[in-house]
Design a protein that fits this description.
The complex is a heterodimer of chains A (652) and B (297).
Chain A (H helix, E strand, L loop, with lengths): L1 E9 L4 H19 L5 E5 L2 E9 L6 E7 H4 L8 H9 L8 E3 L2 E6 L4 H15 L19 E8 L2 E2 L3 E2 L2 E2 L3 E3 L7 E3 L6 H7 L6 H15 L9 H5 L6 E6 L9 H10 L4 E4 L2 E6 L4 H29 L1 H6 L13 H14 L4 H9 L7 H5 L6 H9 L4 H9 L14 H20 L13 H13 L7 H14 L11 H12 L4 H8 L6 H14 L3 H17 L17 H23 L2 H9 L2 H10 L7 H18 L11
Helix pairs in contact in A: 1-4, 8-9, 11-12, 11-16, 11-18, 12-15, 12-16, 14-15, 15-16, 16-17, 16-18, 17-19, 17-21, 19-20, 20-21, 22-24, 22-25, 22-26, 23-24, 23-25, 23-26
Chain B lengths: L10 H15 L2 E2 L14 H4 L8 E10 L15 E10 L5 H12 L8 E5 L2 E3 L4 E10 L2 E12 L2 E2 L5 E6 H9 L8 E3 L2 E2 H19 L2 H20 L3 H20 L5 H29 L7
Parallel strand pairs in B: 1-2
Antiparallel strand pairs in B: 2-3, 3-9, 4-6, 5-6, 6-7, 7-8, 7-9, 10-11
Helix pairs in contact in B: 6-7, 6-8, 7-8
Classes of the chains: A alpha+beta (652), B alpha+beta (297).
Amino acid sequence: MSTLVLEIGCEELPASACWEAEAQLPLLCRRHLGVEPAELYIGPRRLALLVRDLPDRSGDEDRRGPPERIAFDEQGKPTNAAEGFARGLGLGVEQLERRDGYVWARVEGQPLTASLPDRFGEIVHGLVFSKSMRWDESGLRFARPIRWLCVKVDDRTVETTVGRLESGGFSYGHRFTNGVVAIPEAEAYAAVLRDAGVEPEAPERRRAIVEALDRLGEWRDPQRVLDEVVHMVEQPLVLEGSYHDRFLELPLEVVETVMQSHQRYFPLGPGRFAFVANGGEPEVVVSGNEAVLEGRLEDAAFSYGRDVEIGIEAMASRLPEITFHARAGSLADKAARLAELCRLLGGGEATVEAARLAKADQTSTMVHEFPELEGLMGGVYARLAGSPEAVAAAIAEHYRPDAAGGPLPETAGGRVLAAADKLDNLTVAFALDERPTGSRDPFGLRRAAIGLCRLADEGGLAVDVRSLVERDRGLLVEQGADVTSDPSDVEDFVLERLEGLLDVPVEVVRAARAGEVSDLGAIARLARALAAALASDAFEHAYVAHDRAGRLAGRSEEAAASFDPRLAVEPAELALVEALTAVAPRIGAAVEAGAYEEALEAAAELGPPVDRFFDEVLVMAEDSAVRANRLRLLLDVRDAAGQLGDLSQIPR
Amino acid sequence: MSTARRTAPTYQEMLATLAGYWADYGCVIMQPHHTEVGAGTFNPATFLRCLGPEPWKAAYVEPSIRPSDGRYGENPYRFQKFWQYQVVLKPPPDDVLDVYFDSLRALGIDPLEHDVRLVEDDWEGPTLGAWGLGWEVWIDGMEVTQFTYFQQLGGLELDLVTAEITYGLERLAMYLQGRRSAFDLVWGPGVTWGEIFREAERQWSIYNFDEADVDLLTRHFEDHERECRRLLERGLPLPAYDQVLKCSHAFNVLDARGAISVTERAAYIARVRALARRVALAHVERESSAVEPEGAE
């Protein structure tokens, strides 16, 4: 047993490449060395793994050869195929075994040192990055150029070649404070690097950064840059800087975005920020970073000042010039559709006004420079122009939720406008036949659909997707958009997202979708109510009523157009009619009111009469009129329970 | 901090230092191209020379003309004309980063004193059909250089990768001289950047944003596009390439002038890219036939 360290020394890797390598290295280690790595060292200039208890030999392996009937002729003599197979593995044909209709060869494990060079090459070549490059004539691809390779097994250096590079027994320390360092033995790898100004373990760098930030006080990371920062330094040096008071007049979000989006600084409190350096003299480094931040804030203040001077009304007046989609008109057209959708979604005057101004900030300098501030800037500019707070807030919040678990708009108007915006994005894409396919979703429509579901479900907004999409399509046509496809499948697209979103079996959501309920949030609540009741007697009864009635009558084409009470004579039949007459309107009213448990209780009352009916009444009566009438009765029972959804979709 | 910059170089000394450093390294010292370009990459010493299999090392200063970046001389960080120092190394040596860091030392920036970092930045030049991976180089948080390993130019996969090093001279000078405004930079003895260029910034911003003749420029774009095609048909990729640059500049002014809608914008860029691609192909073909060994027939 020995200890192995493999290090791929690189020019500065992007954080995303570090994450990809971190995920792949354990798999590659297992595949090519047959063991788990004991340690992973991931950072901007090195990807390394350490294996303890590396076996001295690789395990014996059974290789499958040609089928027996091809490997041996009718006399049982080995054919060319068998001899070729054995020869290829350096064996004699007499060493082959016959098993399960095939011939097999046992290949002895190799001393690992002999195959390590190849195996290491496989690991390096096996790393796949979403963006990779070439840098020399070897044509090797990697996230950034590889500049050295270090392979040690205990105190022995393993020689191997990858691309133009030959491995050695040395590594490099911190880029500026340290140079080349010898790795005397595999186990010493991390300690040698720590002595050379590098913390090779990413979790350790993160811990050091967080601890130092905590010491500085209340730090914030709204754009979540910490994960990236961990892979931007090899020796984190957390420093604090300050900026001039005059920038406190800028909206806080602007200041924080300037700090985070490009510089990856952490806001500390008014006038203070923290950042993570990789070295240098603290005084010099702080002063330089302060100058950079003030420069960027100055630039933002300049853009902001220009925007404020122009004002949101003038920005809105430019919307007709800005294309929303080449085949679906301008942002002014979009604003008009949003206003109408907001009305249909129950938005008031303020929300409709917010719709008119929602896209105005797309013409602002600030959004041009900081796209992540869209919406928010519109809200700021609306407020400065004297718009009521409800209008400004709705504009500011209308891109929410912008991430899987992101917050919903806090105001009612914000929720309405957010839903309208998402619905319109979906309708436009579907109407222009630009539906997302596979992993291609350039307009973020899956996110939009999930956002819409959450606005309806968690936000309590009534959203009748079908009718809203239909109206939106009409508006697009009126505006002269190049509608080439029927967008009514937006509803299915949205409801499919709902299936994934709710913590409820998929079949239950499908059952709920098939009922009388068309409002998105109501479907979610119905699905939850059904899921919660799955084990109850009420559900069992309702299910039986729906299922038994539907199973027999649903297949028949003989059912009468309407039920004729005069043809009902049997006591069990009359009892069912009586139950149905009493219960059906109660189910309907309860569903209408969103009281799904009550509706389920009511539907459950149909269970016993349905059972009795099947026990005592012959549905397929000889008299065709009676038969048709009984089938109709069963269909009516099914439809009454079916107001709760297509319960038959739920497996029992 | 000011003590660290006792001997801060003037702008012109900086240019001379970089030229001297890269000349000593073995680069051909070129001069700016004679037509407006948005970046040193457009200079044929980069775009055309970095195609094909021939090694090439060059360094030169290039004025960047970016009409929409003008701010009437009112913003100390944004200009419609500024300077880049451009270095191309084809193929890059294995120690290319160390060679670059030494150039910073030559300018008086000691990486032990400062926080010098390479921050991921993937570069794409849509009008040139070009892309590469690399970094922006930060000194104490300030971006002073763009470092790119070209992977594609003119839509062609490159046989030999080039490392392109583009120094942002204003940023570097502001850093070295400890100024918060480019207008206060000392260009040469007793003369500031602002004294020489501020009025030009004002006038050119007025031209780019308010005065440029849209019809004339639209016509120019089309004329140069046609001329480019014609020259390509005559087997003259070098003059044809200048027509690409003139198209690109006309587009940039039209864009600053607000005369191009979002949709038209993509179409204009695609037209310039198509020309750049044809020129690149024609140039590579010509060069490969020119270097064929004698008697190859």
